[in-house]
């Protein structure tokens, strides 16, 4: 039986692993389908303390993993299918195998939200993408007009990154000002290759018949006017939803599915802790997720000590 199982391998997961490993609890980290989490899909991270020049998101996560493994954390590239938190030891099914654990730290993070408009799903990987750093350099986007949807830091970051490849980057946002932090918004709006399109929603991605992205249908939300904007790629950056589906009915969440800790990082199930974006719709930063991972590890360690006394 495992003393500590950590579900998720983003900033929260690997920091929890580092702390529980240093407490000699030999944590097992179940990486999920995106080892390293969302940060591995970002380019340069400029706001993680300790890296004055910035650090590549993938590199940061690789370093976190190495640091935790140095003290005895173990990574398993498994996907958790079911959990049973009704009694301790807790039971998890991971790729068909049963894993038992005295404590579990949920650090499953969040996933990209979808627009849910016609054409979006059918043209995914055919011009619709949720990750500029993963796909922006593809030949199909070179010197072509591109669309980024959203008004937050992610949308600004994606738009700036895409100016390296596209002929022009349209930033389509449903309001008339950006939600992004001041520094990101200023940078994006100062970039001559980025053209904001305000008060507008993408109502359809074209063209399913041609089996590739050729444009988007837009609706001006103030005037109701509809138009078509030609583009070769649509980069959707409208935020994230928590990855908490598998805990439904066992762990308390809010209406959006974010886990609600009850005491410190402990959930409504004693021995199950939570850290990072799956419990945070306010701060959602790499460094706050790392901090929460540290807190969850300390809480889990104290829970185990009290239990074994
Ligand atoms: P976000 O801050 O939640 O912004 C989402 C944006 O998408 C908002 O502008 C929102 O519009 C828009 N939106 C949401 N649903 C939509 C829909 N159905 N249709 C059209 N537009 C929609 O998400 P984020 O930009 O991914 O950022 C998440 C967190 O990560 C933030 O805390 C951010 O600071 C952080 N982050 C930081 C960096 C960095 O510092 N380098 C980079 C990326 C992300 P409204 O404004 O109208 O709500």
Give a brief description.
This protein is an alpha/beta fold and 309 residues long. It is 23% helix and 27% strand.
What this model shows, in words?
This protein is an alpha/beta fold and 309 residues long. The protein folds into two domains: 2-111 and 240-308, 3-Layer(bba) Sandwich (FAD/NAD(P)-binding domain); 114-236, 3-Layer(bba) Sandwich (FAD/NAD(P)-binding domain). The chain is 23% helix and 27% strand. The chain has six helices and 19 strands. It has helices at residues 11-22, 57-70, 132-135, 153-162, 182-190, 286-308, and strands spanning 2-7, 28-30, 44-45, 55-56, 74-76, 80-84, 90-94, 97-106, 110-112, 128-129, 145-149, 168-172, 194-197, 200-206, 215-220, 226-230, 233-236, 240-242, 272-274. Strands 1, 2, 5, 6, 7, 8 and 19 form a seven-stranded mixed sheet that branches. The model has no long low-confidence stretch (mean pLDDT 95). NADP nicotinamide-adenine-dinucleotide phosphate (NAP) is lined by residues 47, 115, 149-155, 157, 174-175, 179, 181, 237-240, 284. NADP nicotinamide-adenine-dinucleotide phosphate binds at residues 47, 115, 149-155, 157, 174-175, 179, 181, 237-240, 284.
The rough form would be described as: elongated
The major pleated sheet works out as:
7 strands, mixed
Q: What is the number of helical segments per DSSP (H or I, 4+ residues)?
A: 6
Q: How many domains, in number, for the residues?
A: 2
Helix share bin: 10-25%
**Oligomerization category of the chains in this entry:** single chain
Distance between the termini: 18 Å
Please identify, by name, the CATH architecture of the largest domain: 3-Layer(bba) Sandwich
Q: Considering the protein shown, what is the CATH homologous superfamily of the largest domain?
A: FAD/NAD(P)-binding domain
SS elements, strand count: 19
Low-confidence stretches: none
Indicate the mean pLDDT.
Answer: 95
Q: State the CATH topology of the largest domain.
A: FAD/NAD(P)-binding domain
CA gyration radius, whole angstroms: 21 Å
CATH class of the largest domain: Alpha Beta
**What ligand species are in this complex?**
NADP nicotinamide-adenine-dinucleotide phosphate
Going by helix content, strand content and strand pairing, the class is alpha/beta
Strand content: 25-35%
